[in-house]
Amino acid sequence: MAKRTNRLGSETSPYLRQHAHNPVDWYPWGPEAFERAQREDKPILLSIGYSACHWCHVMERESFEDEDTARLMNELFVNIKVDREERPDVDHIYMTAVQLLTGRGGWPLTVFLCPDGRPFYGGTYFPPVDRHGLPAFRRVLLAVAQTYRERRDEVLKTAGQLVEALKRVETPEEGAAAWGGELLEHAAQRLGSAYDPEYGGLHPAPKFPNSSVFEFFLQYFFLSGEQRYGDMVVHTLRSMAQGGIFDQLGGGFHRYSVDERWLVPHFEKMLYDNALLARLYLHAFQAFGEPLFARVARQTLDYLLREMRSPEGGFYSSQDADSEGEEGKFYVLTRQEVMDLLVDDVGALAFRYLDVSEEGNFEHGRNVLHVTLEVEQLAKLFGRPATEVAQALDQARQQLFVARQRRVPPARDDKILTAWNGMAASAFALAAEVLGEERYATVARETLQFIEQRLWLANGLHSTYAEGIAKYPAHLDDVAFLLEGYLDAFEALQEMAYLDRADTLATELLEHFWDPERPGFYFTSDRHEPLIVRSKPAFDGAIPSGNSVACNALLRLAHLTGKAVYEQRAKALLDAYAATMQAQPSGFANLLCAASFYLAGPCEVVVVESSRGAGTHLAQTVRRHYLPHRVLLVAWPEDGKANLPLVQGKTCSGSLPAVAFVCMGFTCSPPVADTAALEALLPKPGWWRAAALQKAAQ
User: Fold this and answer.
1) How many angstroms separate the CA atoms of 265 and 243, rounded?
2) Tens of pLDDT along 359-373?
3) Domains of the chain
4) Are 248 and 354 in contact (CB under 8 A)?
5) Which run of H or of E encompasses 470?
6) β-pairing, 318-319 with 412-413?
């Protein structure tokens, strides 16, 4: 018997198509659903989730596939299903509304709307029967429908109040704030107070990677020289790399850890987490030179290439936590399964190293693999050479990985998002610089080329691509992260086309997303579909806020192009949010990174070559160092960079093949031709605080 298909069957989103055979009469987001709700005077049930969301799948099985529940939904509501990754603008508004109503949020998101789209009640996951303090979903449906029918005035009043609250919630705090080094110091102390000194990361569990917070700690360590912030980064990255949140066999990070030790993860893997964490580990490798950090970055990027890349060149969105209906089944192992695969001393080493036990550390005697001790400690314990032990462990991992690949894999969301692919392009461009591997440069090029060919069409940049179709005008995140991707590709590859495209995107931001009355960027452009409010998100969430990414990018672009308007807009945004950053630093880590860029200023390095490639040794010297506010230009004859302000007046004279100039604080060094002299000119940890103390003493 053929399955019935609802309106979601023709959608391109894998998440929406997962619900295409539900007995619920789902509509995709659009005018048809709202017109019906208004015509029939019915409230709207808006359900928002995403493909890799475990509890979204649970609620679908329990409620949306249940005939009786679906009958009730169809009778009482007009039902709309939204993929939050496809419509982050819609998700942001209604998630904020539920947080205002209940004090919490998450997915699946369940929101009840008036026919005009204004929310009046909501929550997240609702079970099929009363449990864990949550009301049964069908009881909620009946109560909401009755309230809408019998107490309409209260519903409309609540909806009106919520919309007004939504307009206010993202308005920056009024009043002047300390807008200088004190802001950074205050934020670092406040954020540092949440640090877990035992296991790393931020209290409490569940623990998320918080990439932006640790990027800020790393930057503040470099500016201030305060070692404890560097130590926080090192300890956290080691703990995560050795924990179950990192896939010890296949590479890549899971979404978060349910415990404080980074041991048991929530098993979905997201493109954005892995792109952001690869960058953080690469930055930490530059700063501290620890080989573990380079290895984890490489394994993470190689995971993305192996399992998340489309044949066309873009990167898919996510992999599910579940396989065969069980969370984590693909990743966990019993002791017997490991014994069947590994024999003799290799098995004994792996059991101890990866903490494989009979009782297990997960459900039903299964084990989440994690590292319990260093290779050198294991070698000492077993009385064997460390190189031999390391080789045996590599063999064990490979055997376990090959066996795991024969299992039923988690489902993959093959939707390709511009914003997240911009992040991926940045990560691979940085890897090409730091690790010196040309293959990563090729990936960065091909990722950006994919966006240009499939998502940047004649009618503008689009947000999502699936089933060969590009959909939805670009949101702020799409433009901002792609702009950052082009800047990172430009500095890694030194091709002018990338700087030109970054300039084009910056113009798009200023012309179509900027709020001229209250500085900042809207989530949607002035050409976008009108929603109940035009939001302006500045708080970091699972990814850095689009406003913070745009601010960082504009500061970089101002120094590369010499266009003062970019720095002016970035400064206006920082001024507008200074008081809010002071009051709530936990939500603004990435904007604090932009503030540190503005306050400290960039380290501008210009390498001038007599012929292309003649200054590679100088550029590589710069790229080895952690310089968080670096602007790098490598110019050779007729490469198009001669007219850039940073290059003007700088030449490679005499018989020298290449020279480098280092400019800081509006002052440039004399040209240097050897790497030792260049090294001496580059700023070291603590340079900014030392410069401030020296200035105060004068």
Assistant:
1) 9
2) 999 999 999 999 999
3) 7-169 (3.40.30.10), 181-323+413-600 (1.50.10.10), 331-406 (1.10.10), 603-697 (no CATH)
4) yes
5) strand 469-473
6) antiparallel
